[in-house]
Fold:
Amino acid sequence: MTFSGIIVAAGSGSRAGGDKQWRRLGGKPVLRWSAEAMLGAGAAELIVVVAPGAEGRAAEALNGLSGWRAITGGDARADSVQAGLAALICGPDQPVLIHDAARPLLSAGITARLVAALDDADGALPALAVADSLRRADDRTITQAVARDDLWRAQTPQAFRRGVIQAAYAAWTDVEPPTDEATVVQRAGGRVVLVPGDPRLLKLTFPEDFAMAEALLSQDAPRYQTRIGSGYDVHRWGPGGSVWLCGIEVPHDQTLIGHSDADAGLHALTDAILGAIAAGDIGDHFPPTDPKWKGASSDQFLVHAAELTAQRGGRIVNVDVTLICERPKVKPHRQAMRDRIAALLDIPLDAVSVKATTTEGLGFTGRGEGLAAQAVVAVEMPVR
Structure:
């Protein structure tokens, strides 16, 4: 299925409170929903028509997407559509889908039905049968019941072959510009057919429409549960000149003894993450009996646990590490430790806590025989 796309995003959106194409819906700009849908459905090229001076806003809204170009439109919708048609590089027989940015919830099924309909029609648009009873009124007083038979609610995209729609616009002679492309093609003698529309493809016209669209999106969003994992690790002190703690080398007159670099902070944190996703413990993934891990940096253990979490659809919310020792002093290095953990886990700095405490001279840490670390982590995991 090959087609080109035009998204008209040059309007002011005043009835929705202004600039509706740039407002966020479900966490991303309204315009991006339509662009992702068209590109994902296989658009060979995508023209985004914006108001003069809004090219930067389009680039920001569509950052990371490829296969699209922004151009400026005109005062009327018809002017913007014709500008988009002129910017296409496809041939005259190429199907072109012309879509309103204000209808963000476009599905691949709609685009496929529209392109297929052009096999035996000059144009096609998605539509929904009118289900409500209709009334005419004068100053809120009913004057007439209107039969709803053969009445349809038109949606976008509207689909035409490029040559057909451009020729139809060239033949338009009315002073008033057309409100949609189907009218233009019909006036030129073309046959425009309906394909089944989608109730979700609502137009964001009024502020309350955004609430409806958010509700629709929330139904599709995966459900998550918060899981808590805890980890604990101990290493004894031995001869050395520095110690690795939470990914940072700290000068000290001793070092921690272990098969790897003995970073108790990262070991406890790795175990906490593995515990939250029920994936065993650090020894299952990096056995101390395996010589490959002798002297290894504990950074890779933590990254492995984070990658496992991501592969299962999870997200690390926050981590909290406590180092338990009399020495060395942790506070001078705490910020560097937080920075390092945040970078390894690719989470915000304010989601990382590192702190230290002593045991007031009691127990093996109080006697300076070893260092202990404990960690707690919260992870959001999809409900299967």
The longest strand covers residues 224-239. The chain has a mean pLDDT of 93.
